[in-house]
């Protein structure tokens, strides 16, 4: 019986128990962005640590940081074999608007072989797959084909502010041959992908203040600047009507797409009609001159994530608002530098600041974009493992999302990163009704187990 | 002893009791815009009705409407004398942001001879002055020099949706020679004003929808329209950088200011530096080519009163928002028509709608602008009453605010309207820490009492 057949039997037999354990993990509301969930963050970290210990993982610790803790563990008894450092995150996104969830975000529910819960796909469900793959290898083979280390953080959804320092401080402990991250997606249902690049992230909050307090729009209206109107003018100034970002210098350090890459993307025959159907829009909108895949994989963005100011309750309030604010984030591509982009944003805002208001800019955490050579043996081996289980060719893609820590790992540890994800883009990450297709939970466990054997044959 | 001396004695002697009664009225949180305050609206109406009855006012009723009730009362025993219809409103504005109030909005507090409470100035405090003036005349003279009727509504702050029908239905009952309204302000501290014109009001809510739900800004960002960004572009399109409104046809029916009016405004020597200090801005901002008084008295506006969309909590959420909305109101001047302006706004929004979103427009209630001939004897008499008490010349002004019902009274009842207000523009109407200068409460009572005698001599 091949190792894959043995794994298959084990996962089939234990599926019900595995899902019950995952539900335990998903029930912990570990929202890193909201300070009232600080205790839940610790609960989630402890749950992970306890689970690692139960799997024969050694030197397990819940390590304090300036923010939420990091969970570490290791098993290093495969002498002479490569070492994989597994990374993931146990924190999740906020859940508002709560009224749009069909079942509560922290009460996991299976419908149509999909597991609905905040974090089911991003990223608790995928972190949990690492653990169950280890459990299955020990159970079916009594040992592991490679050495493994685990590092799970609780701040990915807020830009991983503490992990770079932790990584720097624990360089020796984290030494490995490659990093495996499961926080990306398949190319499409039934079509696996290894992701060789990610966008970076940077962002600012813009706070606009006019008068020292809200004013009566009858008495003062027409003679004193309106903070919301001033903010809207700043926001509108960021783009032209074709979606091209107007911040001076914004595109200067963008690495142009090669004709080869553009052709590879075209060959994927991306279905724009299906996308429109999926997200519910009549027409797509993005930077002129680029295809949808290019826009979302290889071009930078500037998005307004939130806006607030004045009266937003029921009915009308004829107020001339004194304050307004917006949260902006940019997805960055190689070789844009997050610090430099923030400087350009600040200069743009200063230049476009309307009369009669003061503007304050606060910076959010930053993450660099990242690109891995796609012919690296660890990348190619991942493609093979997918093909064995999914039985179709693997797509080599780039991801539009950001995993800021990937660039930090690259810089600090100097390791290749293999992004082996099992999500689907329709799974509502960061939105109401997040879910995870259980067929990819099932197949992904087998892919990960096979990959351990693939890596065992690589000479680093 | 003159009637003014007698009133003076009475008001001095009863001041403490009067303020205690006013505080009772102010403690009722009669916020018309919020449906959870429906019961409080009825309490405030009943309080007023009971108070009118206690003053010998006859035929007092709390009349149901489609919205909040109207309070009516009358005293018609001054045979052969003119009849004044007093109007005011017992509803108040919402109180958010609550944390900016130094003392709670519905717990009246006196500091520095100013009465702090929501409604202290706009308009419960001034409505209460009508009542106490009547009480004082009965107490000191045993009768009233003119006939009086009272009509107090509970929907002024939401655009008086029910009062035009009520007025139409009760035309006979409301017949009078003039209408007196105390809901405007002095020109400045110590400098009284009779207001001969008011701006009208119209407004819309703009709701923008992109995708059917919020999306992950990494996965979709750059290829799907952002609802907030689209909204910001619509809002920015409403004005140019000089504050001139860009809605086609918006200014077409504006009655131009005469050179005489512009000169009269210049003669008031409006202190722009003091205004900047008062509202806390370094520079004013309004339509190019007009002075501040012209901008706020005689020119129309387009203000964003509120904006909302996406994530506005603590930290960042990298969401591509599917929905965003804004509340817009316009202050209108003669001869702009609210219905026509809404049509122009709709056409503008339709024309400036960005790609990839749907826009829904909802209309708010409307009020026409109004102008009274300023040489009308009832206007001039009001000026004289102010001068007797304040001992300085009265300014004849226009008001930037809207009392939509004024235009409706004009249309339905065909009566001159005398706007005799006692507020000050620094009193934070519609904002936190609304207050009323008690010196104007005291002097205003005497002005109103004297005006009853002035009106008794006018032949209508």
TrEMBL record, chains A, B:
It is an enzyme of class 3 (hydrolase). InterPro entries: Cyt/Met_Dipeptidase, Peptidase_M20, Peptidase_M20_dimer. Its EC number is 3.5.1.18. Residues 196-355 form the Peptidase M20 dimerisation domain. The keyword 4Fe-4S does not apply. GO terms for biological process: proteolysis. CDD domains: M20_dipept_like. Pfam families: M20_dimer (PF07687), Peptidase_M20 (PF01546). One of its GO terms (molecular function) is metal ion binding. The keyword Metal-binding applies. Keywords: Hydrolase, Metal-binding, Protease. Coiled coil: none annotated. NCBIfam families: PRK07907.1 (NF005914), PRK08201.1 (NF006053), PRK09104.1 (NF006579). This is Succinyl-diaminopimelate desuccinylase. It comes from Solibacillus isronensis B3W22. The gene is dapE.
